[in-house]
Design goal:
The protein is mostly helical and 398 residues long. Helices cover 82% and strands 0% of the residues. The chain is built from 18 helices and no strands.
């Protein structure tokens, strides 16, 4: 269990550092828009670029892990995301585009790398809980961004805040060198295997009924999660007329509840023995929260807004660990990293499409209400699909 605890701590740290890097500009967008010359509402385009690249890099995460080791890939991910964020400090739209692409290259393989480290060390009875704890790194990073980044902004300015967060990511990459030999020794000695093609990886997911359904549902779940995370601060400052500090606090409340939710829902899934019921319920509640968020106005008291953010965060952010554990459970033997990466390609593609559509709706209609309602409707359909479909507890490899 000691080895599992150390592995969990390492993967959690890396996931949190990368999530902090990816969340920083979402928090800073209202302050940076004047220098960059792009409206803060265009943060959805930045997020779409990150996850478009992450879609491709996740697909090849399993192959990279086999050749470089899970810790080695994690280090590369940290360096890429840190370097990408540092470029954004140039305050030029072109630099932001390149920065987003680099962050996406690092964001995609980090989850398959963590799964590779943990899956062989985790008893099956604890898999949902352990994977959910590891996945709390995403809201942990977001919560830190919501609290620390506005403070750095007020003291040093937004560019210095960006460079500080970027430096932390790079420091984490170098820190992992101390344990690389312990976790990557077997992978470096393993023979190189042929790299699967993009088409073959996608076919493997689509040919497996449970993987296919989960991947398509995760497309929507991930999309609304990032719509919420990317637009929450901008929405609350522009439409609810909150200060950046109060909006950052609400953002952090959503992230903290997501941390609690990821652990709690993993425990619940292990206890009741059905990840599908948990995933379906989370989809329905996320949809209702999105509908409610679209009704927020300047007349809403801050405690009510924070309470809604807590529910929204606990559900929209809380599903990932259960989903990743479910992919690990049903993936063909020996292909956990490959199938996790291939399944997450669908997940990340949802993050490409939905924030972009959210931005288009806001730009065309000038209404966040319509955008939140549209995202909620798609999520409701995805959530209900878990209750309409039945699946065996164990599935044959496909």
């Amino acid at each position: 269990m000691k080895d599992l605890a150390i592995a969990l701590a390492l993967t959690l740290l890396a996931q949190a550092a990368i999530a902090l890097t990816a969340s920083t500009l979402a928090v800073l967008a209202p302050a940076a828009q004047a220098d960059v010359g792009v409206a803060a509402s265009a943060i959805g385009i930045f997020a779409a670029l990150i996850y478009a690249t992450a879609t491709l890099s996740a697909l090849f995460g399993g192959t990279l892990i086999a050749r470089c080791g899970a810790i080695g890939v994690t280090q590369y991910c940290l360096l890429l995301t840190g370097g990408g964020l540092a470029l954004c400090a140039l305050a030029h739209p072109g630099a932001l585009v390149v920065g987003a692409l680099l962050i996406g290259c690092g964001y995609g393989p980090i989850t398959p790398a963590g799964s590779e480290i943990l899956v062989t060390r985790t008893p099956e009875r604890m898999r949902n809980a352990i994977m959910s704890i590891r996945q709390t790194g995403v809201p942990v990073g977001g919560a830190i961004a919501g609290v620390a980044v506005p403070g750095l902004l007020l003291v040093f300015g937004w560019k210095a805040a960006v460079l500080t967060i970027a430096a932390l990511s790079v420091l984490c990459a170098f820190g992992l060198e101390a344990v690389r030999g312990r976790y990557d020794r077997i992978r470096r000695d393993a023979p190189l295997t042929p790299r699967p093609s993009l088409a073959s990886l996608l076919r493997m997911v689509m040919a497996h009924a449970e993987l296919r359904h989960g991947a398509l549902a995760s497309f929507v779940y991930a999309g609304i999660q990032v719509c919420m995370a990317s637009y929450l601060v901008v929405f609350l400052t522009e439409r609810a007329v909150l200060t950046l500090i109060n909006a950052g606090f609400a953002f952090s409340a959503a992230m903290v509840s997501g941390i609690i939710g990821r652990v709690l829902w993993g425990i619940v899934a292990d206890y009741i023995g059905s990840a599908r019921i948990v995933l379906g319920t989370l989809g329905v509640v996320t949809a209702l929260s999105s509908f409610a968020m679209g009704q927020v106005t300047p007349g809403w008291p801050l405690p009510a807004i924070v309470a809604l953010c807590v529910v929204f965060g606990a559900t929209a952010i809380g599903w990932n660990g259960v989903y990743v554990a479910e992919v690990a459970r049903i993936a063909p033997a020996g292909n956990v990293a490959l199938m996790t990466g291939a399944s997450l390609a669908f997940t990340y593609f949802g993050v490409v499409v939905m924030p972009f559509l959210f931005w288009v709706i806001v730009a065309v209609s000038a209404s966040y209400t319509i955008a939140f309602n549209a995202a909620g409707a798609l999520t409701l359909l995805a959530g209900l699909s878990y209750f309409r479909r039945s699946a065996p507890r164990r599935a044959a490899a496909g």
